[in-house]
User: Fold these one by one.
Assistant:
Number 1:
Amino acid sequence: MALRSTLRRDLLPAGFLLLSLTVSFAQEPAPTPKAQAEVGVKQDVPAPPKSYPPELVQKGAALFRQDCSFCHGRNAGGGETGPDLTRSKLVTDDVDGDKIGPVVRNGRPDKGMPRFDLSDDQIAGLIAFIHTQQTTALTKIGGRKGVDASDLQTGNVEAGKQYFNGAGGCATCHSPSGDLSGIASRHQGLDLEKQMLYPKHAKSKVTVTLASGQTVAGTLEYLDEFTVGLVDSTGSYRSWRTRDVKFKIDSPVDAHVALFDKYTDDDIHNLMAYLQTLH
Ligand code: HEC
Ligand code: HEC
């Protein structure tokens, strides 16, 4: 926590500075007169209005490492496939999850951000962790960032194949000689890793129930916190305000999100090695 305040100012806009101080020193003792002079020195910072209990941050950290770190990096500092959340304006603007919550629950399926079905408590933990990381990132303790490009060649093909057919359950939906035949030719390197972790182009089905009780089913084309849009059986695009309708989404690719809780780094490396043999 001993980063100089000048450096902080150089790196980040003022609003960010305020927020990160507020969050990170949540558990520090009350200020001393010296505090104002040496912002950024441990234990010498004014008491913040908002504090996150350490247990909550810890729970959030564990969940983040399971579900989010592949893409956003272990410490939320960004990975190859997801943006740096510690520098995200959305995160900076977030108050008690009002911005982060909807992104996590709805995802941005068309942009590579899956949606997560998590409880309010789980989301609260993630939010506490992400905000806390905004400051930790500044200390540059940093850490591993997802899976690096240079890591992609380090896996064991045979172990990957075993995981694919066994513990990973991949074979229940995929076949190396069927849908995944030639996958290594269609996608290379990080692009292949992205497809494996969270296949972008996968389509979900959605059934929308209108206020009248009528239902419309189709392929989900658009979803955010305000709008749900689909392409119906005639090929027409239709959309509604989410608050005017009810809708139910069926996406087999959610299995990939569930896998985030199971993979170890080694599993991912081994799977990558194996998939890269499927030309
Ligand atoms: C498969 C990769 C992937 C996973 C897993 C993932 N994300 Fe994301 N996330 C992304 C991508 C890609 C974006 C950027 C989407 C865009 O460009 O709009 C994003 C965007 C976000 C944003 C918005 C950032 C901004 O500035 O707009 C937040 C917040 C976020 N993710 C949180 C999470 C959390 C929390 C988790 C775990 C529960 C998670 N993500 C899991 C890929 C991922
Ligand atoms: C419950 C079913 C299910 C399971 C289990 C599953 N997947 Fe998938 N996977 C999908 C669906 C659905 C898609 C999207 C297919 C599409 O693009 O239409 C997909 C897409 C993919 C793709 C991208 C294919 C392409 O052509 O772009 C890869 C790679 C992949 N999965 C690998 C895996 C691996 C590795 C595992 C195991 C660790 C796994 N999947 C487990 C359902 C599953």
Number 2:
Amino acid sequence: MGLADRRQPGQLKREPSARRRLLSRQRAEGSQKSGRKINRGSFIMRSLLVLALAVTFVAAMAGSSKPKEYVCYRAAGKIVIDGKLDEPSWRDAPATDKFVDIEGDIRPHPRFTTRAKMLWDDQYFYIGADLEEPHVWATLTKRDSVIFHDNDFEVFIDPNGDRDEYYELEINALNTAWDLFLPKPYIDGGKAQNSWDIAGLKTAVEVTGTLNDTTDLDKGWSVEMAIPWKALAEYAHKPAPPKDGDQWRINFSRVEWRHEIVDGKYSKISNTKEDNWVWSPQGVIDMHRPEMWGYVRFSTIVNLR
Ligand SMILES: [Ca+2]
Ligand SMILES: [Ca+2]
Ligand SMILES: [Ca+2]
Ligand SMILES: [Ca+2]
């Protein structure tokens, strides 16, 4: 999801509808009481009460999108980047909460489960993800293609959490990567630098099922990545590798398109919007709001059973 503008129209449409729901609720509350004789004082009191309820409602909505948190432990031994998250360190690494809709709890729960894990050592920041998916398919094979045009898994990293100078990495089930650097978010006039590559990046995908085969149902796919600290250090303005207890801002997203099968091949249903499922809800259909991302706290503890 590199392009913010493809999501902003949806956001603009939805916000007024939330306001409409609130207003109609207030009107409904008012009409239930319209039969009673009321004096001016109680009308003002009731208005204040409605206002207080509205403020509480808005505060509750804001509270529901509190950024997620994750403790990233050190890896014990070698992590082989083969797409299989079967090393002991992965086995014992905590899984994130299940991903939710990018807008949070106001939208339906994702149709398929997604969870991520993180690990680190002196050389790499490791990210693993499991994506439930009955139809694993992908088409893009060229590095730095617009990968979210396929179903994908996406990583966003802002080491010092200042909203500027952050990294994005997207990958599809063919293990094609799109890595880019954002000097600042699109809404602040930022322009993506696709030519920025993560030097030494290692990624792999494991499909549990069959890729691009429409005749069966799959279990899903998993992603395994090793991102060199050396590459992340470039615009980190923080130690990379991190120190014990350091916190970075990070979020993960998964783009999922509705498909149909045409002549035995997967194809996107035209004029349908993609689903965006994320770890830490953004509240709006835009991943490029780094202030909404989750927190990863790095620990020097090796967390093995
Ligand atoms: Ca592995
Ligand atoms: Ca930054
Ligand atoms: Ca690139
Ligand atoms: Ca298949």
Number 3:
Amino acid sequence: MATTTGSERARSTLAFLRRHITTGAWPVGSRIPIEPELAEQIGVGRSTVREAVRSLANIGMLETLPGRGTFVRSATPTSTLLNEFLNDFTLEEILSYRRALEIEAAQQASMHRTEEDVAALERAAAEERGCTRCPVLGLGDDNSAFDSRFHRLLFDAAKNRLLAALYSGINDQLRTPAHRGRLANVATGAEMERDHARVLDAIRRRDFIDAVHSMADHVDHDVVIVTAEHEVVPPLTRTAEQQERIDTAREEADGRLARS
Ligand SMILES: [Zn+2]
């Protein structure tokens, strides 16, 4: 007769819970089944379930509220772990990491997007059209609760769960009050509209080179660091010659958009 050890049961219980969370079978915000129910479903003891729930609570995926049950808080463990890890880095380093993620997502989105992704991005771009600033990181207008759906949807279109998880973690980090006061969004509403239209156009045409360039251009001015001297520090500083090449590429992209 096959027997399973305690550690195997613990592992499979953890895997069971994790799978239900990461696949969205238990969506973020939902209450998971009660302990005896889970114990029966998985075929383990209640203490094994309790232990697994506790370890997922430790990494921020679940939260147990006394008398109310256990709730899904995050579909990935990345957020909590990543935030602790990122605390050791400077804001400049974090912002440059965010830049890399946005650019990679734009490129992957241009290759993996479906028609539904394009439609969803078009809707988001249209919704955000009235904003005076790109609402990325909640830095748009005065509505700090509003985050850019356009930016998030790019990560859905990229079809890469790890990129999406890392992005969500870094967003949480950059949204902290400590960082918020030091960050500003200097892209005007008109600039955001033009930038997003360009990124969207590249993704629609599955042009992965344009997708990269247009997103790189956008992230260079959508979120910047404000220093004590009220100077703004873009993620990348360029020479006049580099700036000229960027301006030329921008004009070409605008020409293409005007013709389409
Ligand atoms: Zn944006």
